[in-house]
Amino acid sequence: MSKTETKEFQTEIQQLLDIVINSLYTDKEIFLRELVSNASDAMEKLHFQLVSGHDIKDKDLPLEIKITTNLNEHMLTIADAGIGMTKEELTENLGTIAHSGSKAFVQNLAETGDNKDLNLIGQFGVGFYSAFMVAEKVTIYTRSYHPEAASYIWESDGKGSYTVEETEDLPRGTRIVLHLKKDQEDFAKPETVKRIIKQYSSFVPYPVSVDGENVNTVQALWTKNKNEITEEEYTEFYKFIANAYDEPLLRLHFSSDAPININTLLFVPKNNIEKLGFGRMEPSVNLYCKKVLIQAQAKDILPEWLRFVQGVVDSEELPLNISRETMQDSALVAKLNKVVTSRLLKYLGDQAKNEPEKYKEFWKEFGIFLKEGAANDFAHRDEIMKLLRFESSQTEGENLLSLSEYVERMKEEQEAIYYVNGPSREVIEAGPYLEVFKDKGYEVIYTRDSIDDYVLMTVGEFEGKKLISADQADLNLTRDENKVDGQEGLEGDELESFNEWLKELLGTKVTEIRESKRLIDSPALILSPFGSHSMQRMMQMMNRDL
Ligand code: ADP
Ligand code: MG
C-alpha cells in the first residue's frame, strides 16, 4: 500500500524505554493496568464526542475492551473502540513527552534507578511505555473516529525508533498487540490476565473481557451518588473488596472537593479477626485514581490503629502532584490521611449518638483498636477519647459510659475522674478501694483490662480533669469522719508501734505502711506506688520479657 516511515523516539522517551526494558522491577503486571486505562480513556473521549453530536466512524460499535491471549504465539492483544489515533497523533502521543512533570519523573528514574517508582509510571503520563517491560515488540493497529481518517500500523521494539505505515481500513479504535519476551509468556495465559485485571482494573467503567469472558462486573460505587445506590449494591461491593461473606457493620461514603478532591467508601466489618487470633491485620484501604488501583493496602491513608477499616479512597489529584517524591512521603497522602481520618472519627461519634445499639456492637469488637489509638495517636487523641466506653459504679448491665457523660455527672467539688481495675464488678465492689468514693457519692470507672489502665494513665486527663487510679497511693481523698461510727483509731506512739509491728511482719512485701484516711468498713488496703496495681503488673510483665 504505502511506504513505511521510520522515526526516532525523542531522547527522554528513549531514556525511559532503556530503563523500562532493562528494569528488574518485579511488578511488571502493572503494564496491563496502564494499557487498560488507556483503552478506557480513549473510550471516554469517544463517548464525549458521541454525546456532543459529532460525526463518528462506526457509530454503533459497542464501547468495550477486548483482551485476547495467544500462548502459542506468545501474544497478548488489547483492543478498544475508542477514539483511535491519526498519523499525527501517533507520533505526538507515542514518541514524545511534552509535560515537564513527566520529564522530571524520567530524570529521577534514571538518576536513582529506583525500581519501585515504576508503579507511578501511569501517574506521569508515560504509562504506555510500561508495555516494554514484558514485550520485545509492540504493534498498534489504530483508526481514528474521524470519518475520513486513515488506518495505521505503529510498531517498535523500543530500541531507538518506531515505524508507522498506512494500512487498509480498520474498525474504529485501537488494538495493541504485545509480542511477549521469552520469559514473560505468563502474560499470554488467560488465568494470569484475568487475575491482574480483577486486581487493578475491576472498576474500569467499560466492560473488559478476556478471551470473550467478562471480568469486571462490579461498579465503582464510590463515584456514584449516594441516593442512587441500594443497600444490596453496597453489600455486594463490600463483599467484593473485602473478600467477605457477610454484611459490613458500618459504612461511610463521602465525597469532598476541598481541601482535596476525594471520593471515599469505607466499611467496618462485623468481626475483629485479630481478636480471633488471626494475627495482626494489614491496612486494608486501597488508593485509586479515577477508578484505577494505584496502591493496594495503602499504609498511609489511615493511622495504623484504624487497620480494621476496609475500603476505597479515590483522588483525581494524584497524578503529577506527586512530582519527585515517592507515594510514601508525599504531602498529598498526608493530606488525604487528614481528611479521611477526621471524617471517620466524626462519623463514629455520630454513630455513638444516633445509633447507640450499633455503636455498642462496634465497641465490643473494635474498642481495643480505639484504645490503641488513644494511647499512640497523639494527633487524634482528643477525638478518640470521646469514643471510649467503660463500665462504672453507676452503669447497669450492658450499658456503658463515655468520659463526657462521666464529667457531666461529676459532683460539684469532685476534681478528678477515678477508675479502678478488677476482674469483675463483684470483685471490685467487694474490695476496699471504693469505700471513700461511695462515701462521697463519686462515680468510679471499672476497668477490666490492663490496657484500659495503661491508656488512662498515658493520656492523663480528659477535658481538663485528671484521670486517677483509685488504688494510687497518694490519692487526695479523705472520708467524712462523721460516718465512722464512734470507733476510736490508734494515735501517736500506739499507731507507730503498730505500724512497726506490721512492717516486721510483712518485710519486703511492702515499701511503706500508712494510716488510711479513706477506709470506712475495711481494716486495710494495699496501694500501689506505680500509679495503679494494673500498671504495676504491666511493668512486671515487661521486665520479665527483658
Ligand atoms: P497518558 O495515558 O497518561 O496520557 P500514556 O503513556 O499511557 O500516558 O499514553 C500516551 C498517550 O497515547 C495517551 O494520552 C493517548 O493520547 C495515546 N493513547 C494511548 N493508548 C491509546 C488508545 N488505546 N487509544 C487512543 N489513544 C491512546
Ligand atoms: Mg495512560
Q: What topology emerges from the helices and strands here?
A:
Layout (H helix, E strand, L loop, with lengths): L4 E4 L2 H12 L7 H22 L13 E6 L4 E6 L6 H7 L6 H13 L22 E9 L7 E6 L4 E7 L5 E8 L9 H12 L6 E3 L2 E2 L16 H12 L7 E7 L5 E7 L15 E6 L2 E4 L14 E5 L16 H24 L1 H21 L4 H7 L3 E2 L10 H7 L6 E6 L3 H6 L4 H6 L3 E4 L2 H10 L1 E2 L2 E5 L22 H15 L26 H13 L1
Parallel strand pairs: 2-8, 12-14, 16-17, 16-19
Antiparallel strand pairs: 1-6, 2-3, 3-7, 4-5, 4-7, 5-6, 8-9, 10-11, 11-14, 12-13, 15-17, 18-19
Helix pairs in contact: 1-4, 2-5, 7-8, 7-9, 8-9, 8-13, 13-15
The protein binds adenosine-5'-diphosphate and magnesium ion.
Low-confidence blocks of residues: 320-329
> Order of strands across the widest beta sheet?
1-6-5-4-7-3-2-8-9
Bound molecules: adenosine-5'-diphosphate, magnesium ion
| Residues in helix, % | 25-40%
In DSSP terms, counting alpha (H) and pi (I) runs of 4 or more, how many helices?
Answer: 15
How would you classify the helix and strand content by structural class? alpha+beta
Counting DSSP E segments of at least 2 residues, the number of strands comes to 19
- Radius of gyration over all CA atoms, rounded: 33 Å
User: Average pLDDT across residues?
Assistant: 89
Strand content is: 15-25%
Distance between the termini: 81 Å
Q: How is the main sheet built? A: 9 strands, mixed
Shape: elongated
Structural account:
This is Chaperone protein HtpG. This protein is of the alpha+beta class and about 550 residues long. Helix content is about 35%, strand content about 20%. It has 15 helices and 19 strands. The chain has a 9-stranded mixed beta sheet with strand order 1-6-5-4-7-3-2-8-9, with helices on one face. Strands 10-11-14-12-13 form a 5-stranded mixed beta sheet, with helices on both faces. A hairpin with a 2-residue loop joins strand 8 and strand 9. Helix 7 runs parallel beside helix 9 and helix 8 packs across helix 13. About 0% of the residues have low confidence. It binds adenosine-5'-diphosphate and magnesium ion. The site of adenosine-5'-diphosphate has 17 residues, from helix 2.
